[in-house]
Each structure stands twice: as C-alpha cells, then as structure tokens.
Amino acid sequence: MFDFFRSSPPRCVFSGPRVYLRPPKWADQKEWLKVRGESKAFLEPWEPAWSRDALTAAAFRRRVHRVEQEWRSGIGYGFFIFDGKTSSLVGGITLANVRHGVVESANIGYWVGQAYARQGYMSESLQITLDFAFRKLNLHRVEAACLIDNEASRQLLLKSGFQLEGRARKFLCINGRWQDHDTFGILRTDDRPAVPVIERQ
Questions:
Q1: Torsional class of 87: left (φ above 0), alpha (ψ -120 to 50), beta (otherwise)
Q2: What's the whole-number mean pLDDT along residues 174-183?
Q3: How many whole angstroms separate alpha carbon 87 and alpha carbon 176?
C-alpha cells in the first residue's frame, strides 16, 4: 500500500484541468462551514438528517477525524474538491465501504455547494476519484445511488459512465426518511470520459 495512505492527515493531491482533490485539513474548517452553511437548504433534501451541531467546529473536527481513521484503515477515502484557479472549496467526494478480496469494490458519494452546482466541477471530480479507485486502489467496481427524483445526480452518473442497475427500496435514510434509491455501477473496464490526472504529494 502507498505510504501516503497511512499518513495523518494523508498528503496527496490529485489535479484535473479545472479542479483538484485532496483530503481535508484542519485549516479548511472556516471555508467548509461557510460553504455548507450557505448551501444548507440546497443540500438537506439529498443528505442524511443534519445534526443540531452540523455547522460547528465540533462537527468539522469529527469529520476530519473520521476521514483520517478511514484512510489509515483502508475502508474509506474522503476528499475535498477545490477550484483549480481560485483554490475555493466547492464540495466533497468520498469512496466509502471499500472492500477487497473477491469483491474489490466501493461506494461513492458526493456533495457540492449551491454556488458551484451544475458547472462541471463534480463531473470532473468523479473521474478523478474513479481514476484513484481503479488505478491506485485497483478496485474492480464502484457503486453509487441517488434518490429517484434527483435528476441532476442521475444525469451526472450516466454521463460519467455509470450504468443504471436497479432500484433499492427504502435504501438510505435521507433527510429523516427511509427513501427509495436508484442504484448505479461502473467497472474498471467500462468506457468513461477521459480526464487527465496529475498526482502530487
């Protein structure tokens, strides 16, 4: 396994033409709170119910601790997404539930600030993360799920090379309710948009 997987926090940056991805740092707290706070009404319908302290320093610390622990244990890899020109935080993306052995798969989830939605940031970020999953982790398959009425996410996944595979009843508890989700998958051998990725540490 690569040394940066065990560092705390992990030290790596993956850059595409418009964005770069890296694990969260403590110094990101102020900007994370700002983007999440300004996007609260936009994000809440698509996410697990926010805790009462969701927009506090304590919540940010919990998130960073969890990301660091998951990187070290190899079960998850969380990234923040930044605009390549301004270095502004625009969202986050995570490979979770990473399994090896006969499965070699993971789940992917993401969020983007309201001010940056539908501008191509997440499309590129998905390809960078898939490159990481298939090239660095040597995974065979990545899965995703979205609420059945989340047309923006559905189109994003299809455009990114994922295939619609089915519908899972009451799959995740989103915004306080168990809700049906459409499920998607992509294999390492599937066609997907080509995005050049530069890695640095």
A1: left
A2: 96
A3: 33
Q: Which run of H or E residues covers position 65?
A: helix 57-73
Residue 98 and residue 78 in contact, taking contact as beta carbons nearer than 8 Å: no
Residue of 131, 130, 103, 125 whose CA lies nearest to 112: 125
| DSSP secondary structure letter of residue 115 | G
Give the Å distances, CA to CA, from 76 to 59, 73, 106, 147, 155.
Answer: 18, 8, 8, 22, 25
Give the CATH number, domain containing residue 119. Answer: 3.40.630.30
What residues are paired with 199 via a beta bridge?
14
What is the crossing angle of helices 29-38 and 57-73, to 10°?
A: 110
Rounded average pLDDT over 54-60: 97
In DSSP terms, which residues pair with 80 in a beta bridge?
A: 22, 92
Cα distance between residue 50 and residue 44, in whole Å: 7
Number of structural domains the chain divides into: 1
In this predicted model, what pLDDT tens digit does every residue of 4-45 receive, in sequence order?
Answer: 555 555 789 999 999 999 999 999 999 999 999 999 999 999
Q: What is the span of the domain harbouring residue 124? A: 3-200
152 φ, ψ (degrees, to nearest 5): -65, -45
Question: Which pLDDT band, with edges at 50, 70 and 90, does 201 fall under?
Answer: confident
Residue that the structure tokens 């940031």 belong to: 121
pTM score of the predicted model: 0.94
pLDDT at 76: 96
